[in-house]
Design a protein that fits this description.
This protein is an alpha/beta fold. It has helices spanning 62-74, 78-81, 86-100, 103-106, 128-140, 155-168, 186-196, 213-226, 243-253, 267-280, 294-307, and strands spanning 2-18, 21-34, 41-46, 117-118, 121-123, 145-149, 175-179, 201-205, 230-233, 257-260, 284-287, 334-337, 340-343. It folds into 2 domains: 2-101, 2-Layer Sandwich (Enolase-like, domain 1); 117-343, TIM Barrel. The chain has 11 helices and 13 strands. The chain has a 7-stranded parallel β-sheet. The protein has a 3-stranded antiparallel β-sheet with strand order 1-2-3. The protein has a 3-stranded antiparallel β-sheet with strand order 4-13-12, with helices on one face. β6 (145-149), α6 (155-168) and β7 (175-179) form a beta-alpha-beta unit. The protein is globular and about 60 Å long. The relative contact order is 0.15.
Length: 348
């Protein structure tokens, strides 16, 4: 068995804007495990986000990555050794499970291409007209759940867009989620959540910046008592890698949902922990990609299919619609068909 590493830069079809800034390209590291005798191969993707990942400075050179992998594999438990490095942990776990064709990922109806995973259509921040155009495209493509990035353009324009959508589609026909990426202050968030409550918004991701546990807990409490959109934690989970820290965060804030990204939130092992601990507390969850290529996207999808028993139980729309973001994506065995992500079986 041989492990090799390679760099690659992905280029966005159009700038991807959030309230934190704009992405035009994304640097990733591919991990490939091969066996010349058997011809087996396993792929994983290490794709930290430079302004978000807690381990973003750990992969300046491929030699740094190789050193971490060697140390991890020489340890008693590589998943435990790599807890501080979620992007690399996700990549190495993915490559190993792919190489093994591990039943954890491959013994599901989704992996066998029998069912697709429901996904949301993502509408990126832009001016009003462009966001409206994106919404129309998603609706024509057959999406029943749309997620809007908010917090970077004029608030009145954003409300006008939401109002226009709701005037045509009720919540029974279209689920609306919004993602603020921590754009608001605590006081702003209360005002805006009260406004959003008029439009049957399913949830708002990360209304205020992370590390404000007291304020976030209050928003979650008010969401319950005032009928505001549910609060979903996203960036709040970054860097919270130990099990006891996860338990403390969930017990303190008590969100309605968590949004888990394996690249940011602890790899596959950490993701399973987050979802399990949330479920114990009656907190909902869904998985999303973190702007990986199709390599990472495929592995997040395989994990989501296992965690949520896709094909055997009703599944909330997952955030797995990022495969068309790049001009130079890596061809893999996943594709979007209407509002679902499918695995396309090839000879294996």
């Amino acid at each position: 068995m041989q492990i090799s590493l390679s760099n690659r830069t992905l280029h966005f079809r159009k700038p991807a804007r959030t309230s934190r800034g704009e992405y035009t390209e994304h640097d990733i590291i591919l991990i490939t495990i091969t066996d010349e005798k058997s011809g087996k191969i396993g792929l994983g993707e290490c794709a930290p986000l430079h302004d978000l990942s807690c381990d973003r400075d750990a992969y300046m050179h491929l030699s740094d990555v190789a050193k971490l992998i060697n140390e991890a594999l020489a340890s008693e438990d590589y998943t435990e050794y790599l807890r501080p490095y979620p992007a690399l942990l996700f990549a190495l776990e993915s490559a190993i499970y792919d190489y093994q064709h591990n039943p954890l990922l491959y013994d599901t109806p989704f992996a066998r291409s029998e069912v697709g995973i429901p996904i949301n259509g993502l509408v990126w921040m832009s001016d009003y007209e462009d966001m409206l155009k994106q919404v129309k495209q998603k609706l024509l493509q057959g999406f029943h759940c749309i997620k809007l990035k908010i917090g970077a353009i004029d608030w009145e324009d954003e409300i006008r867009l939401i109002e226009k959508i709701r005037s045509r589609f009720s919540k029974s026909n279209l689920e609306l989620r919004v993602d603020a990426n921590g754009a608001f202050t605590f006081e702003e968030a209360k005002e805006k959540l009260a406004q959003l409550a008029k439009y049957d918004i399913h949830s708002i991701e990360q209304p205020i910046k992370q590390y404000q546990w007291k304020e976030m807990a209050e928003l979650c409490r008010l969401a319950e008592t005032e009928g505001w959109p549910a609060i979903a934690l996203d960036e709040e989970l970054i860097g919270v890698n130990k099990l006891e820290e996860k338990q403390l965060l969930l017990d303190t804030i008590r969100p309605q949902f968590i949004v888990v990204k394996p690249t940011l939130h602890g790899g596959m092992t950490g993701t399973i922990e987050w979802v399990s601990e949330a479920k114990k507390r009656g907190i909902g969850s869904w998985l999303t990609s973190a702007l990986e290529s199709n390599v990472g996207l495929r592995n997040v999808a395989l994990l989501a299919a296992r965690i949520y028993n896709v094909g055997d139980a009703p599944v909330m729309p997952q955030g797995l619609g990022t495969g068309l973001l790049f001009t130079d994506n890596i061809e893999m065995d996943v594709e979007i068909r209407r509002n679902k992500l499918w695995r396309c079986l090839v000879d294996e």
